[in-house]
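Forwarding these from the shared drive since the link keeps breaking.
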Amino acid sequence: MLSIADLHVYYGEIHALKGVSLDVGQGEIVALLGPNGAGKTTTVKTVSGLIAPRRGRVDLEGASLVGLPAHAIVHRGVAHSPEGRRIFNRLSVLENLEMGAYTRSDARVPTDIDRVFTLFPRLKERQAQVAGTLSGGEQQMLAIGRALMANPRLLLLDEPSMGLAPVVVEQIFETIREVNRQGTTILLVEQNAAMALEIAHRGYVLETGTIALAGTAADLAANADVRKAYLGE
């Protein structure tokens, strides 16, 4: 579904991505792991059109996304739940979800709001609440729910567990798994390598802007270097 080839991205003179290549197949959860500053967020921002690459390809189902504005990429079927959540703090939960559907004009928007409320019952309970007053876990649920309102075929999740309590992390990851079961392909950027590899089909390890390792989730979880660097063993 998603194919990234020889991707080079710069911030001024800083060479952030140095020839990154990866693929995400239809129906997969693919984890993108690595330390802070490795280029994980830069990768997903480039896919979603927030950063322009200097060189390389980003193709969705064979069609290039490079050069398209972010809203056009949403129209193509890609939604991005960003690091730090970036919800609309002064809007209600329901209004945030409605904003997630701003590119749509079909009649299924209310049905998809109900779907988000089924995935995240806490959001239904708080649908009239101002989003900025939600807990961190609830805000993360809302960020994912808002991205799902675009009805994406490919969902980009950037650090969904950041700053959350372990019990909330488990809830978030189980919901990610359920979203994938329902047919959405997912590229997951995550510092919590153990949880990411538990739900992913395959993974890549990014280090200083290059792909250092790639393989099935099981193979990466068993890799001695991964276990030492990312699994605390």
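-- next protein --
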Amino acid sequence: MSYKGKYYPSYPQKYKGDPTNIIYRSLWERKFMVYCDRNERILEWGSEEIALPYRSPVDNKVHRYFPDFYIKVQENTGRIKKYLIEVKPLKQTVKPKKPKRQTKTYIREVYEYAKNQAKWKAADEFCKDRLWEVKVMTEKELGIK
């Protein structure tokens, strides 16, 4: 089940973008927004504020990918680091297992997995140029069962 809504930050000055128009597309994204907003080590953050071109392996056309989050963090060492964060179910981060019978669900999962891989490759290239890092966060990292 997907939950959508608007998030209103407690600390709008930390948000890079329009703090009156922050949209979450899942409760996992909302949970991460609360974390970014309230964590003092997160110096700034944004949600879907960066557009990256990528070539989809599904139709071989160039599309735009908006990573879920950008964060600027002061790490325990005192060093400042920037990240692009994608929030995804663990199931969408691993290659689907081929069933005995090829189903529409399996084909859809293969397409989604291939698209995600292309998006994350584009994000990785973007980050390498800037000395940033890409992280895909699943229910495991978010502490959701």
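The chain is about 30% helix and 25% strand. The longest strand covers residues 80-87.

- D.
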